Predict the structure of Glutamate--tRNA ligase.
Amino acid sequence: MTKDVRVRFAPSPTGPLHIGGVRTALFNYLFAKKHNGTFILRIEDTDQNRYVEGAEKYIINALNWCGIPYDEGIDKNEKFGPYRQSERKHLYKQYAEELIAKGHAYYAFDTSEALDAHRKDHEEKGKTFIYNWHNRLKLNNSLSLSTEEVQAKLDAGEDYVIRFKSPQDETLHLKDIIRGEIKIDTNTLDDKVLFKSDGMPTYHLANIVDDHLMEISHVIRGEEWLPSLALHYQLYDAFGWEAPEFAHLPLILKPTGKGKLSKRDGDKLGFPVFPLEWNDPNTNEVSRGYKEDGYFAESVVNFLAFLGWNPGTEQEIFSLEELIAAFDLERVNKSGARFDPDKIKWFNHHYMQEQFNEDLAEAFKAQHAELVDIDNEYIALVIGLVKERAAFVSDFWELSHYFFTAPTTYDEKASKKAFKDGTKEILTQVASIIEANKDFTAETLQNEIKGWITSNEIGFGQVMMPLRLALVGALQGPDVFDIIYMIGKTETIKRIQNVITTL
């Protein structure tokens, strides 16, 4: 690329960062790193009425947990600071007034009551009220008033907004990296408000000014901003600035594939839609997070990368470095991407296998008071035997509890299947073989017991099923001889005797 790549993720601090926002941040990050560029975090907090305490910190923590930290932004390499729009509000009015001076914008003094009356009148006639070229000369603004009247209103301190003056009878030719060329008839556009009566800019003005001043080269954002593309192109043209390249990412859809994914979908179907747990300071409602639900950051990132992007190969498992190398905006789809809760669990199962057993043992131990006094090395060995069937650390207890506590009940269906006439005698003999074993390893135990089974022409199931039931309480778990070796000779014999007595 001929110019330095500078991209930004610009969320509003109105609550927790939705998983769709994380995907937008990820794609910006991947694009920046692919082209040795800069990933910037800017907080767009011009709407102070919707500001939520703690949301900004949450956004930063979420990006850091995902392993996609920003290069430039709040308290970090502040080359173009400040990075909160509320701290830049002194900049925007001068740019709005510059557009007025150039004839691309105008003061509008219409009250909200007057505009509501116009809308109601249009609705009664079966029409839609649009403030633009076809009616602006009839409304209360600096295009329909004399210079003296406008100045008098300004001097009197009347409330006003500044609107963009959309052109009439023109066709805009817009470019989007993902969607190609887009044609827009300017007659369908309304004169958007750029500067509000409360002295704050709207998203549109602040966004364009900040992107220009921060030398943003590419704007990679969600599809919901596509309707604003025409105005943003026109603003760049009106200022005489070079526009960045735009790429609008597809929506993340509900698991059913119909409609945009929402928190309600997660609540209904039992999965998080936020990267980290969020405690709403206004309602004290706690929303689940992927981190707290036991997902690895690598799983979330790998999964999100495939929501709308395809590498063009069969490969599904990508490290962050591999994603950076493979990522290309040209391979991002136009159509929405369906969110699949089962797929992200599949990714988590994969990344579970790559974790060190010692680290998993620490996490497992933290979840269960029963394990406090048990040696970490033993727990790590147990995890090594069961983790291939686990997707989360929280799965370990169900898969391995019998390594730590003897069964007190036995699965009824399994008991009927495993215990037959003669089972008591068989288990008694197996206990004797284990008791007599001098070289107590899983391998020698297996050789001795299987040798005894073969020489006595007993069916393997007649021995192995009741033995497993004695050790586990059900017909499940890893290799029986690994279980025996792990729990030890004394405990094994005790469990065999207990199942004989009980069943």
The chain has a mean pLDDT of 95. The two ends are 75 Å apart (CA to CA).
